[in-house]
């Protein structure tokens, strides 16, 4: 089954009413059970215990550790501080190799700890760090590799582990996208020295703001707990220069409720993904980034690659046509980290710089999913994509008139 194209003059870029009266967002928070959140928060208020190792945080850590299958979970305020704590906890310095095609926080967490991010290209199929190129980027200053399991798809963990072992480098992962996902049947969160999750409101399981580090290393876990809480070991004894990375009870209340609802959210994401895949399958120049069918996935990201030479519209033109319809598709991630103003002048990366990252950052487009989206809205979104691409010259000229106006 496929959607039919409508006449192009029906599109919002031609001055018609948008297909959706309310905007559809990428990463709108899933909040299926408001009552349960409020009850947990009421409990915290009744206890007058709002942070500092309260019972909700402890329960959240236990449940994350159990879900991932690791000994330790250290819950923190957000994913970025989790990455920074990991950098500190692992004692990294000098340079760390990180993919350029990721959310900027992967790089910032290193730079904020005075470790230079060295930008590596990614694999054309999985969009994760290219282990071969990572090896070429190693210098005497390199102390570690930070892989990113983009879209919930695992990095080439085995090649990276082999490389890290041979070169005596630390290996850790930004698993911000990958809670509830597996690699070779094992849960992501178990690999490297430690892995970092984000529980930001846009993520699959979320606390509003939140993050966690998971590890099987007892010594590292102890150190991370110390650094998370100013380096305090008792009421008056500080043994390390720490920070305040603590998660609050209120965030844990949201996180626990989100965990309770995981199955509902995955089911919705999966149904949405399957529906998008069917509806978009035969449109020229459009490819949905696939999930590995052998693995468990959270299906949190529905990502298109738009090949403008075949589609007749660029990714940006298709995005503009969708935004006009109130479908707020997002360019995840544009540009590559190495091209962001904060890094452009000084970015350490190979020359010619990162062809796959350049290609993907011109082509990828994330579409709305989660509990806000149903099959009827996906049919309409796919119909817009089809109409726009089948009438690419007309849509293109409309868009350039709009830009000129
Ligand atoms: C969201 C995200 C982060 C940062 O997490 P926050 O909780 O927002 O600080 C880091 N890396 C990636 C890949 C992310 O998507």
How would you explain this protein's 3D organization?
By secondary structure, this protein is α/β, with parallel strands linked by helices. The protein folds into two domains: 8-29 and 262-329 and 368-404, Aspartate Aminotransferase, domain 1 (Alpha-Beta Complex); 34-260, Type I PLP-dependent aspartate aminotransferase-like (Major domain) (Aspartate Aminotransferase, domain 2, 3-Layer(aba) Sandwich), CATH 3.40.640. Helix content is 40%, strand content 14%. The chain is built from 15 helices and 14 strands. It has helices at residues 34-47, 55-68, 79-89, 105-112, 131-136, 157-167, 218-228, 249-260, 262-280, 308-311, 315-324, 341-344, 355-363, 375-390, 392-404; strands at 24-25, 72-76, 95-99, 116-120, 142-148, 170-174, 182-183, 186-187, 194-198, 211-215, 286-288, 302-306, 327-328, 364-367. The strands form four sheets. Strands 2-10-9-6-5-3-4 form a seven-stranded mixed sheet, with helices on both faces. The chain has a three-stranded antiparallel sheet with strand order 11-12-14. Strands 1-13 form a two-stranded parallel sheet. Strand 7 (182-183) and strand 8 form a beta hairpin. The longest helix has 19 residues, at 262-280. The radius of gyration is 22 Å and the shape is globular. The protein starts with 23 loop residues before the first strand and ends with a helix. The model has no long low-confidence stretch (mean pLDDT 96).
């Amino acid at each position: 089954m496929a959607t039919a194209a409508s006449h192009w003059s029906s599109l919002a870029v031609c001055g018609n009413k948008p297909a959706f009266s309310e905007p559809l967002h990428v990463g709108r928070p899933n909040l299926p059970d408001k009552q349960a959140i409020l009850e947990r928060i009421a409990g915290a208020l009744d206890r007058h215990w709002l942070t500092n190792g309260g019972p909700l945080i402890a329960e959240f850590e236990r449940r994350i550790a159990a879900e991932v299958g690791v000994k330790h979970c250290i819950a923190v305020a957000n994913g970025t501080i989790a990455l920074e704590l990991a950098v500190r906890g692992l004692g990294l310095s000098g340079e760390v190799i990180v993919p350029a095609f990721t959310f900027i926080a992967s790089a910032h967490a290193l730079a904020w700890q005075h470790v230079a991010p060295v930008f590596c290209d990614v694999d054309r199929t999985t969009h994760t760090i290219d282990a071969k190129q990572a090896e070429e980027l190693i210098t005497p200053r390199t102390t570690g590799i930070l892989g990113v399991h983009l879209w919930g798809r695992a990095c080439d963990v085995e090649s990276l582990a082999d490389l890290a072992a041979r070169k005596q480098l630390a290996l850790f992962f930004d698993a911000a996208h990958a809670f509830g996902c597996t690699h070779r049947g094992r849960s992501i969160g178990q690999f490297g020295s430690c892995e970092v999750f984000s529980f930001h409101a846009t993520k699959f399981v979320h606390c509003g703001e939140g993050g966690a580090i998971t590890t099987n290393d007892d010594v590292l876990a102890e150190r991370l707990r110390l650094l998370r809480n100013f380096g305090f070991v008792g009421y008056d004894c500080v043994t390390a220069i720490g920070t305040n990375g603590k998660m609050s009870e209120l965030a844990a209340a949201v996180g626990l409720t989100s965990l309770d609802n995981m199955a509902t959210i995955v089911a919705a994401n999966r149904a949405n993904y399957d529906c998008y895949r069917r509806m978009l399958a035969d449109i020229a120049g459009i490819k949905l980034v696939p999930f590995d069918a052998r693995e468990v996935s959270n299906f949190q990201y529905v990502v298109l690659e738009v090949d403008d030479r075949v589609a007749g519209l660029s990714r940006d033109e298709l995005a503009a046509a969708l935004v006009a319809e109130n479908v707020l598709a997002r360019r995840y991630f544009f540009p590559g980290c190495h091209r962001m103003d904060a890094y452009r002048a000084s970015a350490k990366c190979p020359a010619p710089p990162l062809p796959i990252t350049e290609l993907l950052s011109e082509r990828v487009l994330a579409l709305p999913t989660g509990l806000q989206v149903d099959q009827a809205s996906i049919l309409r979104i796919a119909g817009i994509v089809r109409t726009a691409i089948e009438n690419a010259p007309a849509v293109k000229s409309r868009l350039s008139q709009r830009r000129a106006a």
